[in-house]
Sequence to fold (239 residues):
Amino acid sequence: MDDQTQDTQETESTPKKRRNRMKSPRQQLHDSLRQFDEMLNNPNLKETKKAEVLIERASIQKMLWQAERGDDRDAAILENEGLRSQHETDTQEIERLKAVPQHRHEVTVQDPDAARLRQENQELKGLVSFIASEITDPHARACIGIRAVLKWGSGARPVFDALNLDIRFYYQGLQGNPSAESLQQNLSRCADPDSENAVYIRAALEVLFQVKVAKPVRRVRNSDTRDFASLCPPGLFEE
Fold:
């Protein structure tokens, strides 16, 4: 009994040997490189042996480089697979969202100043129309139209509507930047001094060049004298 107890105590007191873990192939290659470096640092190493060590060292370095390159390639493949999987997941999610019906709710917000602005706009239009109705002279109306185009361009349409003038006719005429000579030549070709073109040209000469051209007085023909005499008091044209 005592012998058995003594054997047990000796067994327990004896330290267990640790199992050495085998190094990885890459770690073994690094250890070999260190050994070759130590050999190369030996000053007593012969030149022929040194050349062999260098050759072996170069081959180990090549194996390490290939191993690291393989690791990089494997990492790139894994990353590519992950990105492809993520792309497929995103595509499925996009298709799912497209299939969900979209409900749009349009909300109209009433501007509190809209009614007031519409009323003021109507009042301004009425005021412009009233002022325009008080201007009966065609020449004065044409001058106002030209000044409005020069100041507001195509935005002067409300003024032209109130004056009962064609804004396109005035706008196109002023776009060519006419000279005083060309306007006077065009005026000389107008057969009717009261035509829209003649009225416009006289107004343009006055507004653009401060040249006032009097409207020529029409001569009364004999055929018109009888009609005019019928409107006059008796004996006005008798000698």
In short: Residues 25-92 form one domain. The chain has a mean pLDDT of 78. The first helix runs from residue 2 to 13. The CA atoms of residues 146 and 174 lie 8 Å apart.
